[in-house]
Design goal:
alpha+beta, 4-stranded mixed β-sheet, 4 helices, about 140 residues
């Protein structure tokens, strides 16, 4: 099934066009000797998680109509995400304020939900050291 405005070009044609015009893939630079955060080969599903928050009302990146819509209907301004590193499963919640109490409630809710589904292994959650858990970026502070 094709989308209404999609071009019907094969992946090989696009690959050839990019190669012909010397378009290279962006490579992520890492420090010398730096490894990834996890050993993905040995990860058990639902054992390692990352918690992150997002400010939804970002006036620099959103069109004014969306900002006005969010303010008019008093929609939540913060999004909480816990992402399982092994399976890339995402648990999401929304809130009107950003506090450690809400963060711990969200973590507890996800942990209890996993326990009801008989996930019994240890759960490790990595935080981004953000303001919601009374932290700040060590890089910024330095």
């Amino acid at each position: 099934m094709y989308r209404k405005y999609a071009l019907r070009i094969s992946e090989n044609t696009i690959k050839s066009i990019l190669k012909r015009n010397n378009v290279t893939k962006n490579k992520r630079k890492t420090k010398k000797g730096e490894r990834g955060l996890y050993d993905y080969e040995t990860l058990i599903p639902f054992s390692k998680f990352q918690l992150d928050t997002k400010h939804l009302l970002d006036k620099q990146s959103l069109p004014p109509e969306i900002v006005q819509h969010m303010e008019k209907y008093n929609l939540p301004r913060f999004e909480w995400n816990i992402i399982d590193v092994g399976t890339i499963t995402r648990f999401t919640a929304y809130s009107y304020e950003l506090s450690s109490t809400l963060g711990f409630m969200f973590i507890t809710l996800v942990a209890l939900w996993l326990r009801t589904l008989n996930v019994r292994n240890a759960i490790n959650i990595r935080l981004d050291n953000g303001q919601e858990f009374c932290g700040g970026s060590h890089k910024t502070l330095a």
